[in-house]
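Posting this for the archive.
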Amino acid sequence: MARIAIIGAGLAGLYAAYRLEQLGIDYVLLEARAAPGGRIASAGRPGAGAADRFDLGPTWFWPALQPQLERLIEDLGLHRFAQHEDGAMLVERSAHRAPERMRGYASEPAAQRLFGGMQSLVDALCAHLDPPRMLLGRRVRTLQLAGEQIDIGSEGPGARDTMNADEVWLALPPRLVARDLECVPALPATLRRQWAATPTWMAPHAKYVALYERPFWREQGLSGEARSLPGPLGEIHDASLPDGSAALFGFFALPAQLRRSAPEAQLRSACREQLARLFGPPASAPSADFIKDWALEPLTATDADGEAPQAHADSPLATAAEGPWQGRLRGIASEWSAQFPGYLAGAVDAAERAVSALAARERR
């Protein structure tokens, strides 16, 4: 029986396991996907090394505003660089009118990226974990209180399994918990409704990434940043790597329902045409391109996540305030962070709060 069972091996789950490993506290980490990372994902050219990867999920962080995440990155020996913003920004008001050049927005503080993409953060955390404690391809279906322990029912390829833990930490979005996990006895109805009503960040979004041999748009005095009304990409940025591959990436402005009805080849062609309108003919022929639609990921999105929220939602309660589940079940995914809900820093914040509370109890 494990002291702590962590469900979900995204950043929150991996960080929680990393901290428990440091403290010598017994744990097990269960992940439904075949690989860790959750909403962190990357892509690159076939055969390219780990340093030549591009983010398909979260991309940026802000060290001055998110010191806890910055300390973790430093402790793991990872390196960061500033998002490229030099040059003019383009605004496309119509597909039939030339885009307008405008003075670009310089973010303050500057957004930062990691060499090797955010996948390097996942890889570095995994390198500090005891491999037998991480069980991949195990989708948790039931949590049942059985005296002083929690029975955890999971399923994998062709098999069902049950294990036990003193306490369970939920490192997956609140909506997925409300939709997918059967708790016996049932969670308080108000808590389950609150979790079900909490939007999952990234779930409605899709990204397009196009790779090139060089950042030719910079030769035109352009930053690679653009805003577009006709789309299909509404917001575009330079995704190039220092001394590495050149790239542009954009967020789809099309809602998830419309994306779902269009073949991927059609979406890819429309993105190439748009980049050519903005940055010239070379943009129509990327050496490789990728689409990641998070709305199509059943382990990320629910039917309720069809529309993107205008801002990061307020964090819900992380645990039951009373009843049999009090002190036995706790949410640690990014959406449960009161300070940075939905951000990468929120995953670290929510998980650290759980670890700190457990360490304080263990010292009593």
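The chain has two domains: 1-40+120-198+314-364, 41-117+204-296. Helices lie at 11-23, 67-75, 119-127, 174-180, 189-196, 256-261, 264-279, 344-363.
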